[in-house]
Amino acid sequence: MQKTLPKKELLNFIKILMEKYEVIAPVKKDKVLSKFEIIKDPREIYLNEITTVPVKEFFIPEDETLVEFKDGNIIENKGEIKPRIIFGLRKCDINAIEVLDKVMPCSIYINKRKNTILIGIFCEKPDKYCFCESMELNDSGYDLFFYAKDKDYYITIGSKKGEAIVKYLNNAKKEIKLKYKNKKILYDKNIEHYYKNKIWDSDAEKCLSCSACTVYCPSCNCFDIKDTLNMNLKDGIRTRHEISCQLKSFSRVAGGKSFRDSRLSRFKHFVYHKIVYYKHRKGRYMCVGCGRCLRACPTKIDWVKTINILTGFKKKRK
Length: 318
Ligand code: SF4
Ligand code: SF4
Known about the structure:
Blueprint: E1 2-6, H1 10-20, E2 22-28, E3 34-38, E4 63-70, E5 73-76, E6 84-89, H2 91-103, H3 107-114, E7 116-121, E8 144-149, E9 152-157, H4 160-166, E10 170-171, H5 199-206, H6 212-215, E11 223-229, E12 236-242, H7 263-282, H8 292-296, H9 303-317
Parallel strand pairs: 2-6, 6-7, 7-8
Antiparallel strand pairs: 1-9, 1-10, 2-3, 4-5, 4-12, 8-9, 11-12
Helix pairs in contact: 5-7
């Protein structure tokens, strides 16, 4: 069962949500940057493109205090937040949150998730870097999902929470489901056997180890834990910080040895973790095909193209 909302009523619909919830939605910041932000006015919402910055900062911020030690007391961050709605998530964004759900089992994350309603929207014009249709994404994980067609939004209900929000809207006379049309395709994901192929060298030579690919990736979630002690040597904080597998320090261990010393090994690790290792462990790709890493890379490394070329090699060898 779907509900319908006339497109011209969208701002009003958001306004009603804002009375009860904190609403987070895509906002265009300048010519190149768009990101999810807490909105003050529904007119701020910008739905014309996938956001440059992923939504993950609302669940795993770059820096977060986990515990505070003060006057002999331990004050835990319990992840308490106001009930909130994230509106305007793409299918890839929702699938990336599903990935985070599997790997972020701490109570801070879980509480934030419990208090967040996810509203997705269909991508009418997928970006030139997107290849989500290659990544076997789930059609789940949302509370509501909007499909724009003609003068209306057709809204699929994914949960009881979502149902309560759209209860007052009219039932749709027919069900609408639209097909994604990606410009970019990842043809072959069987890349296990190509780890040692020389083709990776040319990508790695261009890599600056800048970490943009992991920072902008909605499913990357690696972090480091740091304790900071005050001058009185009693009080302090324990914090969690985002880190990147593209940095040499990421795999440095006691004694100074780094297990991924070369840019080549770090770059390949990123790709193989997304496409191979995680799939073996959890049964799904960690990459959701959003293309943000390709878009953000300052030297325009296109690992999707590299994998597709490897597929060509495979065909030639047959
Ligand atoms: S690896 Fe790249 S394309 Fe895949 S989810 Fe991360 S940013 Fe998106
Ligand atoms: S964004 Fe590009 S240059 Fe930067 S670490 Fe990733 S692959 Fe390397």
